[in-house]
Amino acid sequence: MKKTKTMLKVGVLGAGHLGKIHLRLLNQSTKYTLVGFYDPDAINGKKVAAEFGYEYFDNINTLLDAVDVIDIVTPTLSHFDCAKKAIKKGKHVFIEKPITNTLEEAEELLALELEYGIKGQVGHVERFNPAFMAVKDNIDSPMFIETHRLAEFNPRGTDVPVVLDLMIHDIDAILSVVNSEVKQINASGVSVISNSPDIANARIEFENGCVANLTASRISLKNMRKSRFFQRDAYISVDFLEKKVEVVKMKEAPEVAGDFDMILQNAEGVKKQIYFENPEIPGNNAILDELETFADAINNDTTPVVTLTQGTQALRVALQIIASF
């Protein structure tokens, strides 16, 4: 595979389930040179190194000194400490979602990002889901949004409430298309298996009148990741799991309708024609894309797709939802 000239030296912190995926993709990438990884569990670190051939560093600082970029794929509780160490050494940081465990930690990272002049990106991978990317430009001033993110139970991830584990994906996607401040949040959550809530529902009202109704569960019998956006003269549905979209739009009805035209008439006699758009959904690897667009942002000195500020905003809303349980 041909490597580009501006290869960035990258290291990974954390070699768990997701960390191993990041290691494999970074090793394949044409934009990074994978230097190695650090995991505090030396037994796991050596096992991963032996199995896949990546270089294991038994000291986090040694790895940080050897790279340009650090990819933090550790449990949420350690995101802040890892990122702070890296930023203070002048390294660019990619941090898995949620950005940190507390808002205070996230805000300190924002200050450090500014102080040290580095770039940061948060791993809100659904922004790179091909279905969402195919319709994002069609989503214009939505006034009602409904999301369902349901997952079968998996002990991995239960160290945080379902809002930070699952719902935060939809919070971030919503904040990226609603150009308005949050006005009010009402929510409820229930702990069923874990010590933290396993199922949650939130209603977010925005200053511009938009309302978003979000449901997340990690104790469902089947997986579902769907979002629906309702706006003037359009309905857009995104299936993040199946990578499918539905775009239904309305326009002024023609004076003489064709045999196959779908025409609706309201109580005032206004006629609208319904039509469907089928945007092309390209195949992609969303995790590889988010990592490589971060490399582009560093090399071209542009703004990352999901900034640390946006990751902080998503965390702020998620914590407000948890606080209102």
UniProtKB/TrEMBL annotation:
SUPFAM superfamilies tied to this protein: Glyceraldehyde-3-phosphate dehydrogenase-like, C-terminal domain, NAD(P)-binding Rossmann-fold domains
Cite the GO molecular-function annotations of the record.
Answer: nucleotide binding
Domain GFO/IDH/MocA-like oxidoreductase spans what residues?
162-222
Q: What is one Pfam family matched by this protein?
A: GFO_IDH_MocA
The record's listing under Gene3D superfamilies reads: Dihydrodipicolinate Reductase, domain 2, NAD(P)-binding Rossmann-like Domain
The family database entries (InterPro entries) matched by this protein are listed as: Gfo/Idh/MocA-like_OxRdtase_N, Gfo/Idh/MocA_Oxidoreductases, GFO_IDH_MocA-like_dom, NAD(P)-bd_dom_sf
What sequence ranges are listed for the domain Gfo/Idh/MocA-like oxidoreductase N-terminal? Answer: 8-124
Q: Which residues form a coiled coil?
A: none
State the PANTHER family in the record: BILIVERDIN REDUCTASE A
Name the UniProt record assigns to this protein: Predicted dehydrogenase
Protein's organism:
Arenibacter nanhaiticus
